Amino acid sequence: MEYRKVGKWGLKISEVSLGSWLTFGNQLDLNSTKQVVRYAVENGINFIDTAEAYANGIAEAMLGMVLKEYRREDLVISTKIFWGGDGPNQKGLSRKHLLEGTWNSLKRLQLDYVDILYCHRPDPEVPMEEVVYTMDQILKSGLAFYWGTSEWSAEEIEQACKVAEKMNAMPPVVEQPQYNLIFKKRVEEEYAPIYEKYGIGTTIWSPLASGVLSGKYLEGIPEGSRLDRWPWLRKTMEERGIFQEETLQKLKRIKEIAEGLGVTMAQLSIAWCLRNPHVSSVILGVSSLDQLKENIKAVEVKNLITDEIYSELNSLF
Ligand code: NDP
């Protein structure tokens, strides 16, 4: 396992990490969550990602129970604030919700601090000064060590960095965007100017596009799979053309390349993400221990991707 710096900053995280969306507290109960976390940590993963919104707080609560087994200094834990509840002040990035959301998350996680606290989405209703000042204060109170953004535009991240400079406050150090073989424009094009300028790292989500890049949907939708369980997600994928013939052909080509290398399509797809030097960590989503055992091997598979294979994969989508 390689440990990568988060952009220009001092924090080091494992190149693959463990996520908890739709899995902890949904497909994984407490016992299986324990097993998955244990396997991850024993195999070099030091970074675990969650959010106040995941399973309405249950994902954080479950992780909190599991983390008791570990020495805090050995782990990097992140959570994300934005969707805390239905009330007018329970969502978004107001000072009130950022502080209350953080306190509530820490209670569920049974932790004194998280290493990274993300603003889970941008909030156009809140002035950037309010967000930056509050995040800086959360950091100064020791409730979090670093802060980041998730699915913010490059322009919004740049604005936050400029405001932080003006206020002598800590800027965001990391963005959490979607990045995979299919959806790559934002990470590769939109953010290109801000990596060097502000030293931003990325912890990327949905490396398998919710499982599509494992090849499991090539012959239809298997029962119990993510797109079977969450119809809204299936609809989103349909709208993005995932089940159109042209896309299916491209996915089949990725599968062929993987088979040629003697690896699985999931491993190759994750390994492709790791080839991007601006990726600090690829967050793995797994609904079973077997998936984790398979996917974590992507760290070895990245060395099998020749320049020729890399450029063919890049040219597909
Ligand atoms: P992926 O795109 O990798 O999808 C993971 C899902 O794909 C699994 O739950 C499983 O679903 C299926 N899968 C995984 N491996 C395999 C395999 N080897 N073979 C077959 N199926 C497989 O990642 P996620 O979308 O889960 O994102 C990863 C993490 O990123 C999340 O857990 C979360 O922490 C974070 N995230 C952040 C977001 C943000 O807005 N900041 C948004 C989304 C995620 P199944 O078995 O049920 O089909």
TrEMBL record:
Signal peptide: none
Gene3D superfamilies reported for this sequence: NADP-dependent oxidoreductase domain
UniProt keyword Acetylation, yes or no: no
Recorded GO MF terms: oxidoreductase activity
Keywords on record: NADP, Oxidoreductase
Keyword Oxidoreductase attached: yes
Coiled coil start-end: none
UniProt-listed Pfam families: Aldo_ket_red
Domain NADP-dependent oxidoreductase: 16-309
Family indicated by similarity: Belongs to the shaker potassium channel beta subunit family.
Protein name listed in UniProt: Aldo/keto reductase
Protein source organism: Fervidobacterium nodosum (strain ATCC 35602 / DSM 5306 / Rt17-B1)
